[in-house]
Hints:
The complex is a heterodimer of chains A (778) and B (291).
Chain A (H helix, E strand, L loop, with lengths): L10 H7 L15 E7 L5 E7 L1 H5 L3 E6 H7 L22 E2 L5 E7 L2 H8 L3 E6 L6 H5 L14 E10 L1 H7 L2 E9 L11 E7 L4 E6 L4 H12 L6 E4 L15 H13 L3 E4 L2 H8 L5 E9 L5 E11 L11 H10 L8 E9 L15 H17 L3 H8 L20 H12 L1 H13 L3 E12 L16 E7 L5 E4 L9 H13 L6 E4 L18 H28 L6 E4 L2 E4 L7 E2 H10 L13 E6 L9 E12 L6 E11 L6 H20 L31 E4 L16 H17 L14 H7 L8
Parallel strand pairs in A: 1-12, 10-11, 14-15, 18-19, 25-26
Antiparallel strand pairs in A: 1-5, 2-4, 2-6, 3-5, 7-15, 8-13, 9-10, 9-12, 13-14, 16-24, 17-18, 17-23, 20-21, 21-22, 24-25
Helix pairs in contact in A: 7-8, 11-12, 11-19, 15-16, 18-19
Chain B lengths: L6 E4 L3 H10 L5 E4 L5 H6 L7 E4 L9 E4 L1 E5 L4 H6 L1 H6 L1 H8 L4 H6 L2 H7 L5 H9 L2 E6 L2 E6 H4 E3 L2 E2 L6 E7 L7 E7 L9 E9 L5 E9 L6 E2 L1 H7 L6 H13 L11 H22 L5
Parallel strand pairs in B: 1-3, 2-3
Antiparallel strand pairs in B: 4-5, 5-10, 6-7, 6-10, 8-9, 11-12, 12-13, 13-14
Helix pairs in contact in B: 10-11, 11-12
Amino acid sequence: MRMVGAKVRRVEDRRILTGNGHYVDDLQLPRMVHAAFLRSPIAHGRITHLDVADALALPGVHAVYTGADMQELCKPIRSPLAQGAVPEVFPLVTDTVRFVGDLVAMVVADSRYLAEDAVGMIDVEYDQLPVVIDYETALDPSVPPLFADLESNVIHTATKEAGDVDAAFAEADRVIEVEFSQHRIANVPIETRGLVADYDRGSGELTVHAATQSPQGLRLQLAQTLDQPMDRLRVLTQDVGGAFGLKGNIFREDFCVPIASRQLGRPVKWIEDRNEHLMASGHAREERITAQVAVTEAGDILGLKAALDMDAGAYPGLPFSAVAFTGVISLLMPGPYKIKGYRCDSRVVATNKATYVAYRGPWAMETWTRERLIDMVATELGLDPAEVRRRNLFEGAPEDRLITGPTLAGITTRECLDKALERIDYAGFRKEQEAARAEGRYLGIGMAAFIENAPGPKEMRPGGGFTGGETAKVRLEMDGRLTVITAQSPHGQGHETTLAQLAADEMGVPFDSVRVVHGDTRLTPFNIIGTGGSRAATWGSGATMVATRKLREKVLAIAAGQLEIDPADLQIVDGVVSPKGVPGKDIPLARLAGQMTLMPQTAPPGTDPNLMAEERFTGEETTGSGWSGGVHACIVEVDLGTGGVRINRWVVVEDCGRIINPAIVDGQIRGGVAQGIGQVLYERIPYDAEGTFMAGTFMDYLLPTSAEIPAIEIVHIEAPDDDGVGFRGVGEGGMIVAPATLTNAISDALAPFGAKVTEQYLPPSEVLRLAGVVPAGA
Amino acid sequence: MKPAAFEHHAAGSVEEAVSLLAELADEDVKVLAGGQSLVPLLALRLASVGHLVDVNGVAELTSISNGDGLRFGAVVRHRQVERSPEVAAANPLLAAAVRRIGHTAIRNRGTIGGTVAHADPAAEIPAVLALLDGSVEVRGVDGTRSIAAAELFDGYFTTTLEPEELLTSVHVPALPAGTGWSVQQFSRRSGDYGIVTVLATLARDGDGRISAARVAYAGVDAVPLRSSVAETALVGQTASPELWTAVGHDAAAVLEPSSDLNGSAEYRRHLAATLTARALQQASERAGGRA
């Protein structure tokens, strides 16, 4: 039976659901001690006094480290992928704190309880400095930079221009200008950050067990900053309880803990608590765009000008800073729509807030801006938003190109739109909406489209793109079972299942005889991203497939030699090699592998008895458009008595090429939509004007629960089966397009009040302000 | 998020708990009941205590009795109240209000005495006591006294209990037969504290006029509030949707809620008006009349 395309039950589930997973906090090592951090209570200030003597004197405390210690114990942190202006940074602050939660000192003690007691005994005084909290202050050239070694709080500017933007605007009947702002939110995986560092004084080896998306990326960065030889540096990752981009970063705490272990010669554990996590792990999404769109009265979109500002927080992200995402935003903003001229100016600013991190579709501001703008164009011109989209969408014809360059040949956005509107009964809904309005009930419908280069067409990724593709290793064990060693580092995506499905089909072995191994830098191929960026479906799959194909060739060559027939006449079915159509000549893989391992000298001449294959996949075997994408549509009802928004229906029509496992794809979509709903209705990271952080627990940072998420109806547009790598990334799409879909629906519901939705965060009080029911306020 | 060290005392009886409270009065002592509010505060080090007197093992505080109204031992869990057929029969409003407390896991641990003593202004049970003129019984080394709801709540998270006193039981009067009732709450998510909670009871006379009405709020002030504006405006009137809207508006207009991350004072007043009208409508329907 072919496993690819089947709803195979996840092999991870039994382990995780029965409490047998292994997360970093499950690790208990002999002589292990525990770290806790002293964090800044203020947004910006100079440390005038720091005395750790009392903390150090507390029985059970092993060490207290400050920024001055770190300057002795490691090098300044440098990203191999740094972009924009980068200051010199140490793991702990050396003189100035730059956000609430900034790292002032680290205590290592016998228990976390004691470590926290000692943190409370550190004597520290600050001279408050003026804070940089909003864009205007950050952009003001008279305001001193947060880092003395930078010239400005504007750490990056860029412009992308395509087509003839002036001509497009000159030709327009109207230009509509809107200022959009997207609020700061947080990734909040169920497992917080954490690591256990274990330095062995005998061998000089440093082993780091980490909750990370990228063990190899972490290892590379630790080697640089800690000056630790890479032959004596191993990063291990087992189960990871979600990340959504956050744990692709390397954090300043990640250096402190191994440094302490190296100094003390003991394992040191640090598990971030939820309060630290919300305050200091990193935040996402805070961006604003002033957009101008040039249109004709008939609804043709001619041109788009966008001015993007991104709030990167104080410290640059590692290895990718906020700057990395402005490029994707400006590349993708025109989306699957035809326009003649486009310009995007980007600025990234530093502020006294936690670091900007990637969060599931970190460039999603482009989709929200574009799709909101299309609805506003429709309203302004008195046209139907579905018609405006149809009028301007590409067909996916061979000559279709994003105005910023890449080919859009084969995209299915138009088909997705038609199917979504049909499924949700768009025409029927409009009648229902009218009837409801007559009764004083406010229903609304929203739709939005997105495309995502996951992996993108071949022309966008020559040689395998910026990582040069991805490598996998496959080994046939002596008992005929197959071990796949992947560079992916799954943290909820189910790669132990999907890569096993692919390898089982490629090799011709049963699904349950394949084991997928990940998360050990001694074994796994290098990949700086690990798992992230919707890459696994194409790159992880492709690497597994090409490596397994290579191994299969080796096996068939040996069997062909033994049977003295052409390898092309052999098949492998259920772990048994046999000549096609000739019974009685079976060679079970266990026999073949056992023989080749124990007696490699018996390998037929010209064959390789080493039953391992390592292959790099550079994307040549991909099939299809390279674009993931889709259209979502939802129906809401707004209660003007409370400001509450009820989501009555949510329809997804998506195209991620060929589907490896429909249950996993649906799970990815539902999870993404849930986070997108959270982003609009519930979640916001609040800072006040002094930079005080105001959401220290889940009582203030509201995540949607299952009670808030509607049933999500999913329709797939699936590519035909072929021998290629036709799988495209699907992890981010749900969240990229959900905020646009939902805000468009709420805006539609509030249309009778002339509401203009330009802020993405729509708690009940804001909904009622938009409806004119309550005045502006908190 | 690890609490600072404290000493834990497992009290076996009310007497023992009360004498521990007296003995440790100068050493920062607190009573531990279900711990659903106190323990997170300790873990975040927003509060610290020298001693916790744990009353979870005090068997005499775990029962519900029904006579002159309902009487709950202080460590009766919310879940016990929610599932009690006696409570459902004697006071369906209380049963409905208790279901609004957090999630099942919270109700499994949280106690009725704990929520009253904690006095969160957004909490449901204190508002029920205010609405129905309930009371609590407290015990100190010098004996027992009863405190009426109107005298009990003294500000944000503050009651008129003395530090050495233990809240031993909560008394909730029964709903008179034929009384309609409603619990209206709006929270951003299922299980959250209400931004505003409105409780109402309504009775009518033979002519269909409103003969008695009570309205109480949680989440709009430092303590649970009774609305004399609403109660006065309702009695003697004939039920109608216009009346509910007008009373909701007038009752909300005199409220002075604060602003927070969930919304401005103006938003809360709007919410109070909406929920008051909805509560009165539902209470009126349950009272058997038409509106």
